[in-house]
Amino acid sequence: MGSWFRNLSVLVIAFVVCIQIHNTVGFLDDEDNVERGDRYIDQLLEEMLEQNGNEYDPYVLEDSSVGFSKKVMFVNVSGEAKLHNGYITGLKSLHRPDHCSVEEEDGKLKVKADLGAGVLDFYYDGTVKFMNFGPTIKVHGVLAYLEIHMEFTVDAKTGRNGKLTKFVIDEMKGMKVTASGLGPMNWAMNYIISGVTTIFQGFVRKFTQNKIRSHIAERLPNYQFPVEGGDIDITEVPEITEPPKETEAPEEIPEETEAPEEIPEETEAPEEEVVESPEEEALEALQVFRYLDII
């Protein structure tokens, strides 16, 4: 009898603890809340692309360069591919590929969602300089798909005070780069492609953090999330026209709690050295000399 009573007491205590946990953290991944979250994110992206689409597609790339070197007649000679007139297309394909998730904790709704974009196309014109020989080239790159993970919070009661807490690139899938116009310098193809691939990936990271992330972070505080029982449409929060009563400067709040993905400061790819056998060096040097009418 005593053992049965103790077991019953343990079950009652466990039940009470579960109720307290449920009241503290509420998981809201039912159809209505997921639908509200999906509609909110979709309309947020749609409005952002309408206002800033001219910045996204085409997105103009900065001029850059790729350095390389090669031994010619036992002498190490440096070359360079200068890239200009670059741009990216396809960034307006940014979308939500799957349902979001919504949970409540400490008076806030936490929304998690994945974003995607693709296919992205990259273009560059360029000139190559090697031993005073300078063919013009065209570079084309393709990124099959870009995956981004985003998280933000809003007030659970009002749906306001939106704040972006996480925005990172998960993966860049299917990057391919080709170059044409090298002629007798086709031996430098792999080294130019390697450098341009690094440049393209750096530009994607830079654009994602400096443009997309910033535009979303700016809009979240100005829109009302449709809380449970409310309209699923986004309602823009009106601007406050009255001056604040407090004169004390508010405490500065960081834009995100997670450090953003590091963005390379330089877009110039590192110089790469071509290492070949003496026979290959002599043959390719002969081809270059013939092209330049030296022999």
In short:
This protein is an alpha+beta fold and 295 residues long. 32% of the residues lie in helices and 35% in strands. The N and C termini lie far apart (108 Å).
Task: List the keywords.
12 strands; 10-stranded mixed beta sheet; 295 residues; two-stranded antiparallel ribbon; alpha+beta; 4 helices
Question: What is the percentage of strand-forming residues?
Answer: 25-35%
Distance between the termini: 108 Å
Q: Please work out how many helical segments DSSP would assign.
A: 4
Mean pLDDT: 78
Helix and strand content put the structural class at alpha+beta
Which blocks of ≥5 consecutive residues have pLDDT under 50?
Answer: 15-19, 21-28, 237-268
Q: Note the run of SSEs as H and E.
A: HEHEEEEEEEEHEEEH
**Percent helix range:** 25-40%
Major sheet summary line: 10 strands, mixed
- Say how many strands there are: 12
Tell me, briefly, the overall form.
Answer: elongated
**Spatial extent as radius of gyration:** 28 Å
